[in-house]
Amino acid sequence: MGVFRFEHPDILYALLLIPLLMVIFWWMLRWKKKGLESYGEPQIVGLLLIDVSKNRLVVKFILLVLAFILLVFGLSNPQVGSRLVEAERKGIDVVVALDVSNSMLAEDIKPNRLERAKQAISKLVDKMGNDRIGIVVFAGKAYVQLPITTDYSAAKLFLTTVTTKDVPTQGTAIGDAIELAITSFDDDTHSRAIIVITDGENHEDDAIEAAGNAASKGIRVYTIGMGLSKGAPIPVYDRYNRRTGYKKNRQGSTVITKLNESALQQIATAGKGIYVRANNTQTGLRKIFNDINKLEKTKFESKMFSDYESRFQYFIALSLVFLLIELMVFEKRPKWSKKVDLFNKKSWMYK
């Protein structure tokens, strides 16, 4: 059984204009009626405009609306999947462990560390051909945000929803994130890699040991340091997402979060990967992805609907047909139609 979809579903939002068009048409009829009433009695004006039909206007409007609906459907390109095929792919499994602790809101990297990391991951997803990706978020604890998948659209969608509020427990449990990423891989026969994106202020566990454990299982661990060595204060926001100041310690001094580069280098070394420091011009994901691509790509199977056939031409053709019919319907009866009056018996009985 085939599957129906729209190639450009966003265009369907244009259908929301139909109620507006109906209101405009109703207002036009009222305006026209009031304009005619200003010329005299409605009965007398009606006799003068006997060849003009309100019903014809309604018919013309309905035809235009139908043409518009069909045009919108045509531009969104309806497609039908003819069959379900099992495609064989070669790729690498990658789990991105993203730090969502409050320190990632620091703005030493614009617009802030977290947003810049999300932008970089999104670009990484765009470059993935046949690889699979999963996302783990962590602060004081780690959680799976997205299981391993080839659905890149879902990956980017989940990525947009990531905030520092996703993990209620504050902290930076890098080791916990690595251990959870290890268990997220569903097949140990594939080439696997973990990319940890964090400012490196680990306060919770032994991340170096976790990276070594990953390496012993054939999983490379790469680290990207988000932040500058001089550090930056941590913005504080209220419930309405308005900045109210910066985080302070018990002594009332502003807390400065700094990149822990040494720890991230040790984690990458233990995980047999590489460490890259991000800055305001690049995040380092490209360098890491190039290194990951050197790993042996293994085969895996992925079921998907394929051979989608477009059906836009039918909708466009019908839209043009309704437009042609609308042009042939005149608001005023044409002169030639007066000669054919089926309701005037004299016109055909007494000739």
Topology:
Elements: E1 3-6, H1 18-37, H2 42-48, H3 54-75, E2 78-91, E3 93-99, H4 113-127, E4 132-138, E5 142-149, H5 152-160, H6 174-184, E6 192-198, H7 207-216, E7 219-225, E8 232-233, E9 235-237, E10 243-246, E11 256-257, H8 261-270, E12 275-277, H9 285-292, E13 298-310, H10 312-328, H11 335-338, H12 346-349
Helix pairs in contact: 3-10, 4-5, 6-7, 7-8
Polypeptide structure, described:
This protein has 351 residues and is an alpha/beta fold. Helix content is 39%, strand content 23%. It has 2 domains: 3-77 and 311-349, no CATH class; 86-303, von Willebrand factor, type A domain (Rossmann fold). The radius of gyration is 33 Å and the shape is elongated. The strands form 4 sheets. The chain has a 6-stranded mixed beta sheet with strand order 5-4-3-6-7-12, with helices on both faces. Strands 1-2-13 form a 3-stranded antiparallel beta sheet. A two-stranded antiparallel ribbon has the order 8-11. Strand 4 and strand 5 form a beta hairpin. It is built from 12 helices and 13 strands.
